Amino acid sequence: MHYWLMKSEPDAFSIDDLARAKTEPWTGVRNYQARNFMRDGMHVGDGVLFYHSSCPEPGVVGIAEVASDAYPDPTQFDRKSDYYDEKSTPENPRWMLVDVAFKRKLGRTIGLDELKQQARLEGFALLQRGNRLSVLPVTKAQWSHILALE
DNA sequence: GCCAACGTTGGC
DNA sequence: GCCAACGTTGGC
Length: 150
Fold this sequence. Notes:
Number of helices: 4
Strand order of the largest sheet: 2-7-4-3-1-8
Shape: globular
Distance between the termini: 22 Å
CATH superfamily: ph1033 like domains
Structural class: alpha+beta
Radius of gyration: 15 Å
Largest sheet: 6 strands, mixed
Number of domains: 1
Strand content: 25-35%
Order of helices and strands: EHEHEEEEEHEH
Helix content: 10-25%
């Protein structure tokens, strides 16, 4: 069992959207490190902190769960998609994704500013300088500490 | 809208 | 293989 944080812009796909969808393929990740976490690190049942980014109140807003093993992101083959990648082929797909299932919405947003104030979250990948990864690992200790703030 | 950070691209 | 240019992310 491992833990992760996945970012989404709420204008594009929010925790409420996930609550309605119940399960969603996490399309559009086009960063190799993030892809590798999904492809090599994630397993069904892993915990996911759902994070809202690029919005008035960035922070952790809910809990989700990895719901599939990694498989090729279909949008990379779709010429009409913003995520189309002409260099990727079905025989040798470049981009992978997992399905993410809704677990619950937090009672409140645990804001980025609040996370930054937590001495025990020193070293947390989300808080590292210049970090832009949209999928990143969370330790069990970090997971417990963050959720205890709720 | 600004800008720092940083990944990717492409010329050489 | 270097590195400048460029594009994107994401907080503010």
